[in-house]
Design a protein that fits this description.
The chain is α/β, with parallel strands linked by helices and 106 residues long. It is built from one helix and nine strands, in the order αβββββββββ. The strands form three sheets. It has a four-stranded mixed β-sheet with strand order 2-1-4-7, with no helix packed on it. Strand 1 and strand 2 form a beta hairpin. The longest helix has 17 residues. It is globular, with a radius of gyration of 21 Å.
Length: 106
């Protein structure tokens, strides 16, 4: 094989490796303010982290009925890394009118 052909082949291999690399995980913030999750609906991927930032002076939770729960202390934040592809509706156990949704893609 000629040197030019080898260079071209090497570039193609590098390009293929770069284009198939998995996307880096993201941290997605959900603000809790005045008894509201904002945004109420979040699109995420497995491996992403959801960080709830509580601006209220009272505690909240992000609770999935029959599933997980994250306690969010007043004026603090709490987070969870998403491990499965699913759509979940969550609410605050202390204030059930507070609702959110996570749409988690693979």
């Amino acid at each position: 094989m000629k040197a030019g052909a080898l260079d071209h082949l090497a570039r193609l291999v590098v390009l293929a490796l770069v284009s198939t690399a998995p996307a880096a995980a993201a941290t997605i913030q959900v603000t809790v303010d005045k008894l509201v999750f904002s945004p109420a609906s979040v699109d995420a991927k497995v491996g992403d982290t959801i960080e709830w930032v509580n601006k209220d002076v009272i505690a909240h939770t992000a609770t999935v009925k029959g599933g997980w729960e994250v306690v969010i202390p007043p004026k603090r934040s709490a987070s969870m890394t998403l491990k499965t592809s699913q759509t979940v509706d969550y609410f605050c156990r202390f204030h059930p009118n507070m609702k959110g949704r996570l749409l988690v893609a693979p």
